[in-house]
Specification:
five-stranded mixed β-sheet; disordered N terminus; alpha/beta; seven-stranded parallel β-sheet; about 15% strand; about 50% helix; about 475 residues
Length: about 475
């Protein structure tokens, strides 16, 4: 559990307006995706500002403990709420509708986080007095798919808590490390294409994300260890704020370009998201972006991101929007006939699409089951890899020992061979000297002088002291 709430500053009343009771509606808080982390950050920020916050979701994961520790209520049944909220902030479609139907006169602000997902559809009820889009792509969805006038849509982009993502040191002139930062990354062909491009350029590559079992609840510290980060959306924003060089990429949807000081403002308006992912992931396209690496330019892009992408700016804009809504629409009275029409339209859509609540519960349960299986798989993979590494180390040790013994035996054999060769040489030399001496001796024996002096040698032998007797 991330305990950064334990050191959160004491709550203070907001500088303008009264403290509010704010209900945040979200499908589930399980995987720390972009929308889930946005909801978490918004809830904690509003609580620190002095507002009472309740989160309504279909299912909660470990973030519920973290949120409750920060004095934020978490409920899966709206009937558990005894007090009427002042405003509803809806992050996903069906949970927003359930909340506004339960609290039928509360003003509603909806946030579109996604261009295509069913969660991103706006709740089209009279209670909704403000629509927010997190980027231009989502704003276009609200306009072109749901007929909401552009002037009714506020563009409030996701921000990053800069205190949690401090700036890393200066990037090296030549990159050494790279990271795929995505919950959607898995050990598939796309990841291998990225890895191949990195290997060709001498870059080591790591992956952070639940899809590969390497999920980090707080990745801020890890980001500082990498020079280049592949990611989109919130992941790209966090990496830029950290000071990494960023390539916009999603392992499922495709890839964009390296973010530069010239393109960061445009990419930010589109939330480093899907609209920019226009190319397939190949080692050639990834390599082309890696070759654009420029440490100084990446530093300038990061400075711009920190200046324009802070969480305080984002949530401050949302707080102002919420306070303005409550001031202008403290109670939203909807005529019964209009409410009936809205409910009829929603129920027709609900029947056509199936039971969304049951689907969400099933999906959440499936996600948890898959996450458990993935974690178990990764745990076993790590155990088996450790065993393989140990066996390989033992094999290498034995091979080194055998090689050392073989080298020693070879050296010993070489020494003995050298000694034998030297002995043979000495023997040959001795035999040659012996042959020479024998030849000389034969010459002496055959000489005239040896024969003449024979009697003298015999006399000498007889008279020599201690010699043999005649």
């Amino acid at each position: 559990m991330n305990n950064d709430t334990a050191t959160a500053p004491a709550v203070d009343a907001p500088p303008s307006g009264r403290p509010l009771h704010i209900l945040l509606a979200m499908c589930y808080l399980l995987h720390r995706t972009g929308a889930e982390m946005f909801t978490r950050d918004l809830a904690m920020w509003l609580r620190r500002r002095g507002h009472a916050v309740t989160i309504f979701a279909t299912a909660f994961g470990d973030m519920a403990n973290e949120l409750r520790f920060a004095s934020i209520a978490c409920v899966t049944d709206l009937a558990d709420m005894a007090a009427r909220p002042d405003v509803i902030v809806g992050n996903t479609h069906h949970e927003t509708v359930r909340a506004l139907l339960h609290f039928h006169d509360v003003p509603v602000l909806t946030i579109c986080h996604d261009r295509s997902d069913d969660h991103g559809r706006p709740a089209q009820f009279a209670q909704v007095v403000c629509h927010v889009a997190v980027d231009e792509n989502c704003a276009q969805r609200l306009v072109h798919e749901f007929g909401i006038a552009r002037e009714r849509i506020e563009l409030i982009q996701n921000g990053i808590d800069l205190s949690r993502f401090p700036r890393r040191g200066e990037l090296p002139a030549r990159p050494r490390t790279a990271l795929v930062f995505s919950n959607y990354a898995s050990h598939d062909a796309q990841l291998e294409e990225i890895r191949a491009a990195c290997v060709q350029r001498g870059l080591s590559l790591d992956v952070i994300g639940s899809g590969t079992g390497n999920h980090l609840p707080d990745p801020a510290e890890a980001l500082g260890r990498y020079d280049i980060v592949f990611g989109k959306g919130r992941c790209a924003t966090e990496a830029l704020c950290t000071g990494n060089s960023v390539v916009v990429l999603d392992p499922v949807w495709g890839m964009g370009e390296m973010v530069t000081a010239q393109t960061v403002a445009h990419a930010r308006r589109w939330n480093f998201g899907r609209a920019l992912l226009i190319r397939p992931i190949t080692r050639e396209s990834v390599g082309a972006e890696l070759d654009r690496y420029d440490a100084d330019d990446a530093g300038k892009a990061g400075e711009w991101m920190r200046a324009h992408g802070s969480l305080d700016a984002t949530l401050g804009a949302l707080e102002s929007c919420v306070q303005r809504m409550v001031l202008q629409h403290p109670v939203v009275e909807v005529p019964a006939s209009r409410r009936a029409d809205e409910m009829s339209r929603y129920m027709q859509d609900w029947i056509r699409r199936g039971s969304p609540s049951a689907a969400h519960l099933n999906i959440a349960s499936l996600h948890q089951h898959i996450a458990g299986l993935q974690q178990s798989f990764n745990d076993h993979q790590r155990i088996y890899q450790a065993r393989i590494d140990a066996l390989q180390a033992e094999t290498q040790r034995q091979a080194d020992h055998a090689a050392a013994q073989a080298a020693q035996a070879t050296q010993s054999n070489a020494d003995w061979n050298a000694r034998l060769a030297e002995a043979e040489q000495q023997a040959r030399q001795a035999r040659a000297e012996l042959a020479l001496l024998q030849a000389q001796l034969r010459e002496v024996y055959a000489s005239h002088s040896w024969r003449v002096t024979g009697p003298l040698r015999r006399i000498s032998t007889l008279v020599r002291p201690g010699g043999p007797s005649a």
